[in-house]
Amino acid sequence: MSQYGQVQVKNNRYKFRGDFHRLEQHMPIRDADNGWKLVGVTKPRDMTYVHSYGGEAVFFESLSQGKLLATKCENPDCEANGSVFQPFRIYCPDCLSKCAVVDMTERAEKTAQIHTYMVCTRSGAFNVLDKPIRFINVEFENVSTILFSYLLVGEPVIGMRVRPVFKVFNPTYTILDLSWVPADTPAESLPEGFAF
Ligand SMILES: [Zn+2]
Protein backbone atom coordinates (compact mmCIF):
# COMPACT_ATOMS: atom_id res chain seq x y z
CA MET A 1 0.00 0.00 0.00
CA SER A 2 1.64 3.21 -1.09
CA GLN A 3 1.45 6.37 0.97
CA TYR A 4 0.16 9.67 -0.40
CA GLY A 5 2.87 12.27 -0.75
CA GLN A 6 3.50 14.61 2.16
CA VAL A 7 5.71 17.69 2.27
CA GLN A 8 7.55 19.58 5.00
CA VAL A 9 9.91 22.50 4.84
CA LYS A 10 13.23 21.92 6.58
CA ASN A 11 16.32 24.10 6.21
CA ASN A 12 14.31 26.31 3.86
CA ARG A 13 13.70 23.44 1.41
CA TYR A 14 10.79 21.20 0.56
CA LYS A 15 11.22 17.66 1.89
CA PHE A 16 9.07 15.14 0.02
CA ARG A 17 7.93 11.82 1.47
CA GLY A 18 5.65 9.16 -0.06
CA ASP A 19 4.21 8.83 -3.57
CA PHE A 20 3.14 11.88 -5.57
CA HIS A 21 2.08 9.92 -8.67
CA ARG A 22 0.08 6.71 -8.35
CA LEU A 23 -0.91 4.28 -11.09
CA GLU A 24 -3.55 1.63 -10.51
CA GLN A 25 -4.34 -1.52 -12.49
CA HIS A 26 -5.56 -0.77 -16.03
CA MET A 27 -9.00 -2.17 -16.85
CA PRO A 28 -10.12 -3.41 -20.29
CA ILE A 29 -12.88 -1.63 -22.22
CA ARG A 30 -14.93 -4.22 -24.06
CA ASP A 31 -17.72 -4.04 -26.63
CA ALA A 32 -20.83 -5.65 -25.15
CA ASP A 33 -22.50 -5.89 -28.58
CA ASN A 34 -19.56 -7.48 -30.33
CA GLY A 35 -18.50 -10.60 -28.47
CA TRP A 36 -16.84 -8.53 -25.70
CA LYS A 37 -13.95 -7.67 -27.98
CA LEU A 38 -11.23 -5.49 -26.50
CA VAL A 39 -11.48 -1.89 -27.69
CA GLY A 40 -9.26 -0.08 -25.16
CA VAL A 41 -8.23 0.31 -21.53
CA THR A 42 -8.92 2.71 -18.68
CA LYS A 43 -5.82 4.10 -16.99
CA PRO A 44 -6.59 5.07 -13.38
CA ARG A 45 -3.98 7.40 -11.99
CA ASP A 46 -3.81 10.17 -9.45
CA MET A 47 -1.33 12.80 -8.47
CA THR A 48 -0.68 14.90 -5.40
CA TYR A 49 -0.35 18.54 -6.33
CA VAL A 50 1.98 20.74 -4.28
CA HIS A 51 0.38 24.16 -3.90
CA SER A 52 2.58 26.81 -2.25
CA TYR A 53 0.72 29.66 -0.50
CA GLY A 54 3.67 32.05 -0.28
CA GLY A 55 2.62 35.35 1.29
CA GLU A 56 -1.02 34.22 1.60
CA ALA A 57 -0.21 31.40 4.03
CA VAL A 58 -1.04 33.54 7.06
CA PHE A 59 -4.55 34.13 5.67
CA PHE A 60 -5.31 30.39 5.48
CA GLU A 61 -3.70 29.66 8.85
CA SER A 62 -5.89 32.34 10.43
CA LEU A 63 -9.13 30.90 8.99
CA SER A 64 -8.40 27.70 10.93
CA GLN A 65 -8.17 29.87 14.08
CA GLY A 66 -11.46 31.69 13.44
CA LYS A 67 -9.91 34.92 12.15
CA LEU A 68 -10.47 36.76 8.88
CA LEU A 69 -7.38 38.67 7.75
CA ALA A 70 -7.30 41.36 5.09
CA THR A 71 -4.55 43.62 3.83
CA LYS A 72 -4.22 47.38 3.73
CA CYS A 73 -2.08 49.77 1.73
CA GLU A 74 -0.16 51.94 4.18
CA ASN A 75 2.05 53.70 1.67
CA PRO A 76 1.57 57.47 2.34
CA ASP A 77 2.48 58.28 -1.28
CA CYS A 78 -0.19 55.97 -2.74
CA GLU A 79 -3.48 57.41 -4.02
CA ALA A 80 -5.20 54.33 -2.60
CA ASN A 81 -3.53 54.75 0.81
CA GLY A 82 -5.72 53.25 3.53
CA SER A 83 -7.57 50.90 1.16
CA VAL A 84 -8.43 47.57 2.74
CA PHE A 85 -8.47 44.50 0.49
CA GLN A 86 -10.58 41.39 1.01
CA PRO A 87 -9.69 39.00 -0.61
CA PHE A 88 -6.23 39.26 0.85
CA ARG A 89 -3.81 40.97 -1.55
CA ILE A 90 -0.12 40.75 -0.79
CA TYR A 91 0.72 43.84 -2.86
CA CYS A 92 -1.28 47.02 -3.43
CA PRO A 93 -2.48 47.06 -7.07
CA ASP A 94 -2.09 50.86 -7.21
CA CYS A 95 1.45 51.38 -5.90
CA LEU A 96 2.79 47.78 -5.84
CA SER A 97 4.12 48.19 -2.31
CA LYS A 98 3.68 45.38 0.18
CA CYS A 99 0.43 45.71 2.11
CA ALA A 100 0.08 45.45 5.90
CA VAL A 101 -1.94 42.52 7.28
CA VAL A 102 -5.03 43.56 9.30
CA ASP A 103 -7.53 41.50 11.27
CA MET A 104 -11.02 42.32 9.95
CA THR A 105 -12.99 39.60 11.79
CA GLU A 106 -14.95 42.13 13.84
CA ARG A 107 -15.64 44.37 10.86
CA ALA A 108 -16.98 41.34 8.99
CA GLU A 109 -19.18 40.33 11.93
CA LYS A 110 -20.67 43.81 12.19
CA THR A 111 -20.95 44.98 8.57
CA ALA A 112 -20.90 42.03 6.12
CA GLN A 113 -23.84 41.84 3.74
CA ILE A 114 -24.71 40.01 0.55
CA HIS A 115 -23.96 42.22 -2.45
CA THR A 116 -25.30 39.64 -4.90
CA TYR A 117 -25.46 35.86 -5.25
CA MET A 118 -26.02 32.91 -7.56
CA VAL A 119 -27.29 29.43 -6.84
CA CYS A 120 -25.58 26.58 -8.74
CA THR A 121 -27.19 23.17 -9.01
CA ARG A 122 -24.30 21.65 -10.98
CA SER A 123 -20.60 21.79 -10.24
CA GLY A 124 -17.26 20.97 -11.76
CA ALA A 125 -14.99 18.02 -10.97
CA PHE A 126 -13.76 17.63 -7.38
CA ASN A 127 -16.47 19.83 -5.89
CA VAL A 128 -16.92 19.05 -2.19
CA LEU A 129 -19.69 21.53 -1.34
CA ASP A 130 -23.28 20.38 -0.94
CA LYS A 131 -25.49 21.29 -3.91
CA PRO A 132 -27.18 23.56 -4.67
CA ILE A 133 -24.21 25.82 -3.86
CA ARG A 134 -25.23 29.31 -2.74
CA PHE A 135 -22.36 31.46 -3.99
CA ILE A 136 -22.43 34.94 -2.50
CA ASN A 137 -20.52 38.16 -3.06
CA VAL A 138 -19.92 39.72 0.34
CA GLU A 139 -19.37 43.45 0.87
CA PHE A 140 -18.06 45.16 4.00
CA GLU A 141 -18.02 48.73 5.25
CA ASN A 142 -14.77 50.53 4.38
CA VAL A 143 -13.35 47.66 2.34
CA SER A 144 -12.44 48.42 -1.28
CA THR A 145 -13.19 44.98 -2.69
CA ILE A 146 -15.90 42.34 -2.61
CA LEU A 147 -15.30 38.76 -1.49
CA PHE A 148 -16.58 35.72 -3.35
CA SER A 149 -17.66 32.96 -0.97
CA TYR A 150 -20.59 30.66 -0.16
CA LEU A 151 -23.55 30.73 2.19
CA LEU A 152 -23.55 27.76 4.57
CA VAL A 153 -27.05 28.08 6.05
CA GLY A 154 -30.29 29.59 4.73
CA GLU A 155 -31.24 31.23 1.44
CA PRO A 156 -29.40 34.28 0.10
CA VAL A 157 -31.12 37.64 -0.36
CA ILE A 158 -29.46 40.78 -1.72
CA GLY A 159 -28.64 43.09 1.20
CA MET A 160 -28.94 40.31 3.83
CA ARG A 161 -26.64 40.77 6.82
CA VAL A 162 -24.32 37.80 7.19
CA ARG A 163 -21.46 36.89 9.48
CA PRO A 164 -18.42 34.71 8.93
CA VAL A 165 -18.06 31.16 10.19
CA PHE A 166 -14.84 29.18 10.21
CA LYS A 167 -14.07 25.49 9.93
CA VAL A 168 -11.93 25.33 13.03
CA PHE A 169 -12.42 21.56 13.49
CA ASN A 170 -10.50 19.52 10.90
CA PRO A 171 -9.74 22.57 8.76
CA THR A 172 -8.86 22.06 5.09
CA TYR A 173 -6.49 25.09 5.03
CA THR A 174 -8.28 26.28 1.90
CA ILE A 175 -10.83 29.02 1.22
CA LEU A 176 -13.58 26.48 2.00
CA ASP A 177 -12.74 26.95 5.70
CA LEU A 178 -14.48 30.33 5.44
CA SER A 179 -18.24 30.50 4.97
CA TRP A 180 -21.17 32.76 5.91
CA VAL A 181 -24.50 32.46 7.66
CA PRO A 182 -27.39 34.91 8.21
CA ALA A 183 -26.35 37.28 11.01
CA ASP A 184 -29.04 36.02 13.42
CA THR A 185 -28.05 32.34 13.12
CA PRO A 186 -27.61 30.74 16.58
CA ALA A 187 -24.34 28.89 17.21
CA GLU A 188 -26.24 25.61 17.79
CA SER A 189 -27.48 25.52 14.21
CA LEU A 190 -24.05 25.67 12.57
CA PRO A 191 -23.06 22.55 10.63
CA GLU A 192 -20.51 20.27 12.26
CA GLY A 193 -16.95 21.56 12.24
CA PHE A 194 -17.90 25.25 11.88
CA ALA A 195 -17.83 27.95 14.58
CA PHE A 196 -18.13 31.72 14.76
ZN1 LIG B 1 -0.91 51.50 -2.47
Question: Quick summary of this structure?
Answer:
The chain has helices at residues 57-63, 105-111; strands at 6-10, 13-17, 21-23, 27-31, 37-42, 45-47, 69-72, 84-85, 100-103, 113-120, 133-139, 147-150, 162-167, 178-182, 194-195. The protein has 196 residues and is mainly beta. It has a single domain (54-195), classed as Nucleic acid-binding proteins (OB fold (Dihydrolipoamide Acetyltransferase, E2P)).
Attribute tags:
196 residues, mainly beta, OB fold (Dihydrolipoamide Acetyltransferase, E2P), three-stranded antiparallel sheet, 35% strand, binds zinc ion
What CATH calls the topology is OB fold (Dihydrolipoamide Acetyltransferase, E2P)
Total domains: 1
Q: Just give the CATH class.
A: Mainly Beta
The chain-level structural class is mainly beta
Overall mean pLDDT: 94
Report the C-alpha radius of gyration, rounded. 22 Å
Describe this structure in words.
The protein has two helices and 15 strands. The chain has one domain: OB fold (Dihydrolipoamide Acetyltransferase, E2P). The chain has 196 residues and is mainly beta. A three-stranded antiparallel sheet has the order 8-7-9. The longest helix is centred in the first third of the chain and has 7 residues. The model has no long low-confidence stretch (mean pLDDT 94).
Write the layout of secondary structure elements.
Elements: E1 6-10, E2 13-17, E3 21-23, E4 27-31, E5 37-42, E6 45-47, H1 57-63, E7 69-72, E8 84-85, E9 100-103, H2 105-111, E10 113-120, E11 133-139, E12 147-150, E13 162-167, E14 178-182, E15 194-195
Antiparallel strand pairs: 1-2, 3-6, 4-5, 7-8, 7-9, 10-11, 11-12, 13-14, 13-15
The chain binds zinc ion.
